[in-house]
# Entry
Amino acid sequence: MDGILAVYKEAGMTSHDVVMRLRKLLHISKIGHSGTLDPDAQGVLLVLIGRATKILPYIEDTDKEYIATMKLGMRTFSDDTSGAVLETKEIKEITDFNALLQGFCGKQKQLPPMVSSVRVKGHKLYEYARKGEMVERPYREIEIYEIEVLDEKQLRFRVSCSSGTYIRSLCVDIAKRSDNLGCMDSLIRTRVGRFTLKDCVTLDQVAQGEFQLFPIREALAHYPFVAYEPLSDIIQGKRIQLDSEDTQVAIVSEQEVMAIYERESGQCYRCVRGLW
# Structure
């Protein structure tokens, strides 16, 4: 069993919980996930099964889309409403929510939440948080491609962004720019790469056998596909010559991705990940 399963993660469980449940349902141990979702968040979680687990490093930078709501008037330790309240402040009215949001389009630096998986000095930030330790967090380069108001009264919006963007941090920054304290109230991930909510199944559906696995090539659609013969060169991991302008390519044979190759010099490419 090899491929990608798009799961609708429900609130109240971790991404790891989803993987553990699927291991039991599918009777397979070689399984993992891409793009962790917080326990309170819902939406698209890509689960890699069998041979597909090898592509994890090559889809981690996939663009994503979310629907979020934010809450004003308070600052929390986790930057969402599930965390301990650190400070409160009287709410100042936002007169033009759309204009406020549009100011966040483009490339920018973002401070990740203290409760996140970003590593500092070899440890994840949430590991420090669990011990009650505060450490200096590094700003990260992100990009907001598109942001749209869905409900001005509820402060609900849709955002399309680069991988590594924390919507909790975005909510904090939006509130700050309006001279408010704020945090994220709810979050639904609606897209990861080409996979959307329409592609998702629930764990209950998986238990009933009502699911399909997407082929590996669909998760690697952001790579140029290049056919190459003889295939034995690829399976043996040999360096090959390609007439390509791309730094990395996906080598395919009969519509199946066999390997990721990377330019070494000139037209010489080397294998960086075999997928057979």
